[in-house]
Amino acid sequence: MNQDFTYFNPTQVFFGKDAMESLPAILEGCGESILLAYGGGSIKKNGIYDQVMEILTRCGKQVTEFSGIMPNPTYAKVLEGGALARACQADLILAVGGGSVIDCAKAVALAAVEDGDLWTKYWIEKQAPDCDPIPVGAILTMAGTGSEMDGDAVITNEETKVKTSCWDYAIYPRFAILNPAFTYSLPEYQMASGIFDSLSHIMEIYFSPEDGDNLSDDLAEAIMKSIIRNTPAAIQNPRDYTARSNLMWASSLALSGLLSPSKTEDWEVHQIQHQLGAYYDCAHGMGLAAISPAYYRLVCPYGLPKFKRFAVNVWGIDPAGKSDLETALEGIDALAAYIRDSRMTATLRELGIPDDTQLADIAATCARRRGGYHTLTQAEILQVLRESF
Ligand code: NZQ
Ligand code: ZN
What we know:
15 helices, binds zinc ion, alpha/beta, two-stranded antiparallel sheet, 11% strand, binds 5,6-dihydroxy-NADP, single chain
């Protein structure tokens, strides 16, 4: 751990089958007016909405509903939520859903207390908030993004076709209720998408300097192996609590800051996926799965020792009699096989992108990150997209 670092995570986590029982005590200090943020209605079908409403009513809260938050939430939806939060003078925004709902709630926390062009200030210029956002609490229904325990709010501006995040400690959820059983009702496609998202978060951090003996890489390998081991069980039996609980905690830890100390972090796969998402409204984790093998094959020669270590330590590839490059590429082949075996989307066509006509525009508008082993040129981003098609 040769680089200095600051570690802080302000989210209080309540984890397990009975985690919801903590909600009344948590709500005691949270004020009277609650903005209940949720998505397209899955929480009404699986009964979570009824559970939450029963507790909020029992605790005497005034509830205003902010529903219809779409996957890949838009800036227009953020402004709608901000107006609603002001009208009801919300004391707390309670987000019940996956990453889209929680991200939107964090953005609404800003939009409720500040006027003006927030998009430019927070999402483009990445300024630190000079206001006090409304506190956010999260009840997670889909594991993957880590939004329940981080300070990112990823929002799509439909007018400018840009999807990007703003980050600050001020918008971390104050608390997160994580009940793995709440994910039982997820369609397999969304579950697999979330699983790959969490794996990708770890790889984005892992495939970057420093590469010497450091605890961050050791922890990353342990969590990646847990995700890979638990994936088949979660797919075979959607009610496997052990698998769901391991996968949920893994995804929360992945972006909690735990793995970041001493790492420069890459995040180019996420930049490419976010622009794919801005052009095509696709499931975030599935987009990452479709482009990751091509991306890592391109970057592999620039970070060969780490890709070899990934192959051996994470995928159990035997390096005997092979060159470092052969071993490293076998590791990426194993990742690609895991993607196919886990019924994740292995190509952009499988993701639902009908033709390659927009790929050049997507590549041209992609941000280029410098934290990994190789900073891609715009032409190389296009190459990754074409090879993933
Ligand atoms: O709309 P609802 O009814 O909530 O249904 C959702 C949605 O259709 C459904 N779902 C969620 N929980 C369910 C369920 N259906 C049945 N049973 C349940 N228990 O699943 C669908 C997808 O939900 P969504 O919230 O969009 O998925 P996810 O959690 O993958 O979030 C994706 C968003 O998060 C951003 C992504 O870019 C994307 O916009 N990210 C946020 C990050 C962060 N805050 O740190 C980091 C990530 O890298 C990512 O960028
Ligand atoms: Zn992600």
